[in-house]
Structures are given as structure tokens and as C-alpha cells.
Amino acid sequence: KILILDFGSQYTQLIARRVREANVYCELHPYDVTPAFIKDFAPQGIILSGGPASVIEKETPRAPQIVFELGIPVLGICYGMQTMAAQLGGRVENAVIREFGYAEIASTEHGVLLRDIVDHTDPDGRNILDVWMSHGDKVEALPPGFQVMAFNAAAPIAAMADKTRHFYGIQFHPEVTHTLQGRAIIARFVHEICNLGHDWNMPDYVEESIGRIRANVGNDQVILGLSGGVDSSVAAALIHRAIGDQLTCVFVDNGLLRAHEARQVMGTFANHLAVKVIHVDASRIFFDRLKGVADPEDKRRIIGREFVEIFQAESAKITDVRWLAQGTIYPDVIESAGGKTKKANTIKSHHNVGGLPETLHLKLLEPLRELFKDEVRELGLALGLPREMVFRHPFPGPGLGVRILGEVKYEYAELLRQADQIFIEELQHSGWYEKTSQAFAVFLPVKSVGVMGDGRTYDYVIALRAVETQDFMTANWAELPYSLLGKVSNRIINEIRGINRVVYDISGKPPATIEWE
Ligand code: XMP
Question: Which atom of ligand 1 is nearest to 304's Cα?
């Protein structure tokens, strides 16, 4: 397995993705883990990520020295290469020419890492790679034992290698797709330099995690809050495969779900997979509690608190529960580990099942903690979940509660459900559902004047939102075809009594957020 030490680059998660794609298991940890941790982890190779700091300045991050003493291959990327150079006796300086974006580098004969990996050759017959650079500093003098592996005008040492110790440094980013041969370079490192086989694959993973769940849980009972979203659904299917009826799912219908959602979730889990699911119809309670509340944060708090209370009451009815299962996935784990430095402001208080573990005094079972989103989807398919469920767009915990602006009313939720269903249906028919990361309708409780037939209307507005994003931290609005928007608008206004105007949201994130509240 590979250990990736994170120096804070925005691309670090991508390194892990690429290693996993090469069918090799890896984990991502902060650069300042203890030497004991690294020893216990027993990596067969280490990758040092990029990062925003400069090794020229004092007190900036360094790799634990043990990284270079274990006798295993090390790959330093960008900042990782610079700190490797500095720590092993080379010199790093501020580059006169900074490079951001596409660059070409010529590779030399040294080091197996880049050998024969090539995009094209130049007139002198040299092998050229098209790479993605992003750096202000550069390695100026090689550490003892190293040779230049690639160069260009801006960076005479664009890559370096110590073939004897298997230390490699590359100034460019192989993990981003702009570096065309990036995958090949990462695969070369893990397979040929670290000698790791293609051991990380989904069927094996399913078997292994089933074994682990059984060993952990024994004969105990487990409960899980099923939301119908991808993560909790896949977690439920996996745990059910492992322990069958020892798992009880609680599905709380808060009245703020999408059209037919409760029926679909019950159909898939209770009927199709024969999972024990307690269906709690709590919509009346939620609408009661939300009466007269218009502030977005107040609404989020109420919905979150009510969910916890209902979940708690339901789980108290099941005897001998020892475990609370959650669909936590690897990006959530990384996010909360890095949480001390990131996220200064609370823009929105996210709620899923926050607070539950403490109040319930249960042990946590999180079988997806090691997986990225696309791996979770692959796992879902392998477990027999329907494609529509596995490839569904994300849906926020507070549901339609944050898509009805201001006070939430049952009447508004009904109108929004219909509009949302039409929008999603048309996106699916036109093939745009897969091309967007998230799409939905928003209910605006303002009335505007329209004309229908010969009569005046005075009705509510629906806003449509569709975005494209990698990580949901930033997002672009999707350039849906006008003809598609036109069709959706026509259908919504004609089919839903109470809506006479449809608008399309063309705000990016930032400065807007994806949800309206
Ligand atoms: P924003 O609106 O902050 O949303 O740009 C980013 C992503 O997070 C989702 N979201 C939530 N997910 N619980 C969740 O599980 C929440 O409370 C919540 N609020 C927003 C949102 O749908 C988008 O995908």
C-alpha cells in the first residue's frame, strides 16, 4: 500500500484517486504524522504531495525524516519534490520565471519513472511530455546521488531521480488530467518502482469488508438512518449483505422529500433487497415545527434536531442495539481531519445525522470510510442497487426545506415536488442528467402576474438550478440548451396550477452557493 503525505495542495485527493485507479490501495494523511505512525502503516511507497508553502522560508512543512530512511521508494510532487531536495542536501530557490499551466518538458535517460512515457518528440529527437505546472520555486541544485530526469527553460531540474534509493521528484502535477501521461507515470511508480500488484478491486473489497463487518459486529444489532441518498443506501446494502437481519434501517419521511421518494426507497430496500426498514412518516411533525420559521439557519437547526429526536425514539424501540451505521465516505473523513485549518466560517450548518453518536452512546460502523464517491457508486452496483439510485444527484439533508425560500408550507412543497419532477424527467430524457452534477427546482414564494387563455394569473415562481462541479466547493451553472429550458418551462407552467413563471439561475459558486438557502 501507498502512503500519501499531504502538504495542502488542492490536488492531493486526486493523487489518491489516481493511485486507486491503478488498483493499488493508498491512504492520505497530513504531512506531520508521527514516525511511529508511518512505521506502523508499513507503506511500500510514499508520495509527498504539492502544497502552497515555500521551502525557502523557515518553519514551513517538511517530510518526517523517516520517509527517507525506510528503504522504500518516494515520489515527491511539486512542493514534495522541493522539500525532498532541500532535506536531502540540494538547494531550492525562487524561480525567476514562474510557471502556471501547460508546459513542455524534455526527459533525459535517467530514472525508470519517465522512460518511454512520451507525448511527442522534438526536432532533436528528444522525448517531450506535456505537463501541468504550478510553481514559484524550483530546485536549483540536485542533492547528492540525484540526476536530472527532465528539464525545460524555466526549470532546468523539472524532474530528478536517485535510481539507487528510488527517490523521484517531479515539479509538475501528474495527478491532474491536463498532464496527459499522468496516469501512466503514477502507474509506473506504484507498479514498477514500488512493485505493487493490482490488488485493489471492488469484488475483493466487498468480500473483505463483509468479513470485517461480521468480525466487528458479532451478534450485535445495528441501526442505520437511511436517507435514500447514495452513501447511506450503499452502506445499508453492504451491511445487510454482511449481517442480514441484525441490521435495522430507519427511514424518516420528513415531508420534504422529492416526488415518490419514500415509495422508491421502501421499494428498493424493503421489497427488493429484503432489508428491515422502519418507515416513519413524520411529515406532519416537521411541518408543524417549521410553521412561521423563515430564517434558513433556524430551519436547518429545526429539521436536524427533529430528525435526531425521531431517530432516537425509533431506535429505543429496538432491543440490544450496539452500533450506529453511517455512510461516511473518504472525502468526509479527510474533510474533518483537515477541518482545524479549513472552513473558518460556517456558511451553512450541514446536517445529516450529526449529533447522533453522542446522544445514542453507540459504537460507529462506517464501512465506506475508505472509499471515494465513484468507488461507492461502483460498490453500489456490485451490490445490486439500481443504477438510478447509485447515480442520483446529491440531495441535502434538510431536503426541500432549503429549496422553499422562507417559511415552509405543505402547499409549497407539493408545488415544488411537481416542478422538480418535470425538470429531472426532461433532463433524463435529453441526456443532460448525467452531464450535470446537481439539478433541481427551487420554490420562490413571490407572486407575479401572467396571462393564461384570456385570463389574468397571479401565481408563484419556480427557479431552475443546474450546476457542473467536481467537488461541490466551487461550481459553474450548466449551459443547458435553450430548447430544453423552454420545454421544461412550458411543462411546469402548463401542468402545475399555481405556477406561472419559471426562471433559470445563472450564478456560479462562489459567489452564490448551490442551494438557495
Ligand atoms: P451549497 O449550497 O453549500 O451546497 O453550495 C454544496 C453541496 O452540499 C449539499 N448540501 C447539503 N448536504 N446536508 C447535506 O448532506 C446539508 O445540510 C446540506 N446543505 C447543502 C448541496 O445540495 C450541494 O450538493
Answer: 17
Give the range among 98-107, 283-292, 344-353, 367-376 with minimum mean pLDDT. Answer: 344-353
In this prediction the ipTM stands at 0.98
CATH class of 202-390: alpha beta
> Is 2-193 a domain of CATH 3.40.190.10?
no
Q: What angle do CA 269, 270, 275 make, to 5 degrees?
A: 75
In a 13 Å sphere around the CA of 60, the CA atoms on its Cβ side amount to 18
Q: Binding site membership for ATP: which residues?
A: 227-233
Query: According to the 3-state scheme, what is the secondary structure of 386-397?
Result: CHHHHCCCCCCC
Q: In the predicted model, what is the mean pLDDT of residues 33-42?
A: 96
Domain extent listing, the chain:
2-193, 202-390, 409-504
For ligand 1, atom 4, the nearest C-alpha belongs to 514
* Topology agreement, domain 2-193 and domain 202-390: yes
93 given a catalytic annotation: no
Tens of pLDDT, residue by residue over 206-233, are 999 999 999 999 999 999 999 988 999 9
Whole-structure pTM value: 0.81
- pLDDT of 101-139, one tens digit each? 899 999 998 889 999 999 999 998 899 999 999 888 999
Give the C-alpha separation, 179 to 172, whole Å: 8
How many angstroms separate the Cα of 56 from the Cα of each of 10, 140, 145? 21, 12, 22
Please state which CATH number belongs to domain 409-504. 3.30.300.10
Active site residue 249: no
Question: Which of ligand 1's atoms lies nearest the C-alpha of 513?
Answer: 5
| Spatial separation of the C-alpha atoms in residues 338 and 7, rounded to whole Å | 11
438 CA → ligand 1 middle, Å: 10
